[in-house]
Every structure is written in C-alpha cells, then in structure tokens.
C-alpha cells in the first residue's frame, strides 16, 4: 500500500502533528508514505518526497507544514483531473489523504466521486467545518487571540481608549467569540449576529459614564451591521477579488469601526488587526494531541477501506464521517450561544 498525503489551504498549527501521526502509524502497518508539496499544486505537478519516521521525528511541536501548502484548486486548472490521475499513476499512489478545510476536502470529495480513493483530515483555525466538533488549529488561534486581548487591556486602561481588535474566522465568529469572552472584551461582534452601531457606541459611552473609561471591542473579520443600517452593511474586504475557490479576501473591519466609534463617541480609539499572527507558531497541547489522533485515525481508515470519508471528533471520540457531510456546509456559531455568553457579558 502506498499512501500520498498533502496539506492544503491556509497553514494551521497542528498540521505537522497530523503528518507525524500518519507516518508513524502508517509505517507500523507497513505502508509507504509520500508527501506531495504545496497542496494540490504538488499533485498537479507531480512533486513529492518519500516520508520516513526520521523525517517526522521532531515536527509535531512546530507550526506550519513541512509539506508546504497552497490554495490551488485543481478543478480550476487546465486538465486538472487528468493531471491528478496521471500523477497518482506515475507515483503509484493507492490512497490520497488530504488534510485541509472545506476547499481542500471539497476537492478530495470530488476526486472520490471520480473513482480516486481519498480520505480527509479536517483542518482550519476557523473551526467552521461541519461534521466535526472541533478542527485542530482552532485552540491555538483562540489562545493567541485571547492573549493579545489580555495585553490590550493595559493600554486601553492607561490611555482611557477604545481598542478594536480584529480577529480571523472568515464568515464565522468562533475565534472572536471564545477569545473575546476569555480575554474579557467588553463587546464581541461576530458575523452570525449582525450588530447595531448605535448600541455598540451607547455601550461604550455608558461604560465611561460609570467611570470605566476604556472599552475593548473584539470583532471577527467578517462581522457586519444588521439590515437596515446605513453603516457597514457588507463585510469589509481587503481587495475586490477572490481566490481559486471563490473566497473573498476579508480584512479592515477594525479600522472602519475605529473611525466610526471615535466620531460617534468622541473617545480616543485605536484598532489592531491580529492577522496571520493567529495562525503562526507552535500548536497548543490540545491541537497537537487532536491532530495526532486524526493522523492515526486516517491510517485506520485506509486499513478499513473507508474512502470518501473524513476523520472527525465527536465528543471525545474520533470517528469517520462521509466527506459529503463535511463539505459545502459551514458550521456557524449558534446565535443562542453568542447571546448566552458574549451578549450576557456585553459592556461588563
Ligand atoms: O481560513 C483560515 C483563514 O486564516 C481565515 O481566518 C482568513 O480569512 C483566511 O484564512 C486568510 O487567508 P490568507 O492566508 O490566504 O490571507
């Protein structure tokens, strides 16, 4: 049995721990493992390296991915499917394990429908993938964002300022919600619960009246105002273009809010965009362990012939679910959860 693996989409803490899990468990089963370079691009271009236990010995604690990654969509490339089939034949690959988010796993699912034996491992800091309770990378990102908010308290307090901190998560607010609540942000804004700028500013002013002359606003990059508002009725984009999977480049909502809040409240306001800091560096213990379990599970799935499926965390168990269940459906923050946590603590 010869297994090809790849990491696709944005890099994410824990990818290397999955790779180690796959290689160590795979070798135990007597399988050969090769790692394609730079996601689907490496499969299209037939670029790969054999992976040994020595190659993965020290990688689990490192962030990023030793294989490299890309946002290449093979179905948008000329003769994409044909080239993938050709590579798999030339490299004698029996099974392909794709480690990625919705986009990467969507390709794995389509390839499975084309007769290629694929298995998925769910990855994204955004935690927005359906059919798994958590994705690895999320816990690390939440902790980085929470620590950033912790640190912003001192400047906000000392200078009597409003600090708006922009947090990743594309169309979902999982990181902003958990980091915001954990870090003691006074206002948390997420895409799932469009906000009212009047209410936001009134909360800031009310805090000031009570002698609390500073406020921290944690805002998810995809947050926008409620319908009917004249302000921020759509997500703030960095550029009016999309990647090969049709994703827009979000970014800048904190700056827009900085200006608006300063104008409306008269308070000194600053914005901070955490950006890729949230995806960088070493994975948390939770992510290292979860990623390792996903890697080991992927090999078990190869052994059991569970193709077209994805490793998934359900409660405390790692199970397998059809890729079809995981792709194309975003796992959003339930508004009830937001209301019971962030909204309860609003302004406090
Ligand atoms: O999906 C992970 C993520 O970090 C999102 O939170 C963010 O919107 C996007 O990727 C950024 O993508 P890129 O690294 O391509 O700018």
UniProtKB/TrEMBL annotation:
Q: Where in the cell is it found?
A: Cytoplasm
Where does this protein hold Mg(2+)? 102
Q: Which Gene3D superfamilies match?
A: 3.40.50.450, Phosphofructokinase domain
- According to UniProt, where does the site described as Important for catalytic activity lie? 123
Q: Fetch the Pfam families from UniProt.
A: PFK
**Binding annotation for substrate:** 124-126, 161, 168-170, 221, 270, 276-279
The family database entries (PROSITE patterns) matched by this protein are listed as: PHOSPHOFRUCTOKINASE
Active site per UniProt: 126
Taking every annotated instance into account, which residue ranges of this chain make up the domain Phosphofructokinase? 2-302
Any inhibitors or activators noted? Non-allosteric.
Which Gene Ontology molecular-function terms are recorded? 6-phosphofructokinase activity; AMP binding; ATP binding; diphosphate-fructose-6-phosphate 1-phosphotransferase activity; fructose-6-phosphate binding; identical protein binding; metal ion binding; monosaccharide binding
Q: Which GO terms describe its cellular component?
A: 6-phosphofructokinase complex
Q: Where does diphosphate bind?
A: 10
Q: Which InterPro entries match?
A: ATP_PFK (IPR022953), ATP_PFK_prok-type (IPR012003), Phosphofructokinase_CS (IPR015912), Phosphofructokinase_dom (IPR000023), Phosphofructokinase_III (IPR012829), PKF_sf (IPR035966)
**Which reactions is this enzyme annotated as catalysing?**
beta-D-fructose 6-phosphate + diphosphate = beta-D-fructose 1,6-bisphosphate + phosphate + H(+)
Q: Name its pathway.
A: Carbohydrate degradation; glycolysis; D-glyceraldehyde 3-phosphate and glycerone phosphate from D-glucose: step 3/4
Any one GO biological process: fructose 6-phosphate metabolic process
Subunit record text? Homodimer or homotetramer.
Query: Could you tell me what this protein is called?
Result: Pyrophosphate--fructose 6-phosphate 1-phosphotransferase
Q: What taxonomic ancestry is recorded? A: Bacteria, Candidatus Aerophobota
